[in-house]
């Protein structure tokens, strides 16, 4: 009678990776993640509380060039100086960037997943060659103009209009809540035309273009947010993106950016959870660390559950994107779940830290307030619920 072999001894439990998710990652994945993590620890974390408190990102162009040198801008895109990384690797980069601050991840998302993606996917070869290499290197900054003062969730109602004037276009309208707007060199602007909604590449030094910065924000303070004002901006015929007409263009770009948010939100959540875990081990009340009390352990266990479930969901969606099988409804699933759960983790972590949780000496409240913006932009909770509701029932409840 044969004797069964002894089972392989399990590795030690890792509080920072309780499910062993790192085992799902390739050596290349881990190298990308660790490179971005080291960069963020060196270049962002020592300064982010001060930038956030001051409401500015004074080294934006310097950081953008550094991100470009690492291949972090337009990561999943191929050619034109882009890294051609996998979707999973791009997601891991978003997680690490947002673990530093949502504003830094937003800078990368808008540059790569909105502005660069629009040009790469819908632009002409001439447009790609003109703009993408400089954008991939971080020498050219882009922004993405879709949302308007009166039209956010319903972009079909946009009022910005482009009309033909001979062989040129004249572009008039306003866009609102535009990340990178006042520092951008080129704006991807979506406008109504007689042919339908079209995308335009607008050099920001064009006469009639201005981008006043939006101030007095309590969220995404270490991020440049602007209004775009277009007063009969004259553009040549070749400024229009030739490969798309209608909302399919901007919504396709948003879907790509939302995927990065699915990962990024878990970065903010991880930073808050780890801050609470470290605090619970060292903060003493009633003669012992608060991490030794049942109620605190329940909070830590619940946070760990949602954090690592969210990372597993993000990884699954990344594999689907790499396989070419990811659907927009699945991105809505991830964005809705992960941002909502990330906010919950931040709020619970704040209770573990007590009064210290509201201090910028810790990252928790900064992440919590940033995520209030992330919850709303690129699709509110309600819009993603309706996307899933339509997919589940086959019935359209948007109107």
From TrEMBL:
> What processes in GO biological process is this protein linked to?
fatty acid beta-oxidation using acyl-CoA dehydrogenase; fatty-acyl-CoA biosynthetic process
- Domain (Acyl-CoA dehydrogenase/oxidase N-terminal) spans 26-139
Q: Which GO terms describe its molecular function?
A: fatty-acyl-CoA binding; flavin adenine dinucleotide binding; glutaryl-CoA dehydrogenase activity
Name any cofactors this protein relies on: FAD
**Domain (Acyl-CoA dehydrogenase/oxidase C-terminal) ranges:** 246-392
Q: Where would I find the Acyl-CoA oxidase/dehydrogenase middle domain in this sequence?
A: 143-233
**Enzyme Commission no:** 1.3.8.6
User: One short Pfam family name for this protein?
Assistant: Acyl-CoA_dh_N
- Kindly state which keywords UniProt assigns to this record, in alphabetical order: FAD, Flavoprotein, Oxidoreductase, Transit peptide
The cross-references to InterPro entries, in alphabetical order and at most eight, read: Acyl-CoA_Oxase/DH_mid-dom (IPR006091), Acyl-CoA_Oxase/DH_mid-dom_sf (IPR046373), AcylCo_DH-like_C (IPR036250), AcylCo_DH/oxidase_C (IPR009075), AcylCoA_DH/ox_N (IPR013786), AcylCoA_DH/ox_N_sf (IPR037069), AcylCoA_DH/oxidase_NM_dom_sf (IPR009100), Glutaryl-CoA_DH_mitochondrial (IPR052033)
Q: Provide the top EC class.
A: oxidoreductase
Q: Which family does it belong to?
A: Belongs to the acyl-CoA dehydrogenase family.
Q: What is the protein name for this chain?
A: Acyl-CoA dehydrogenase
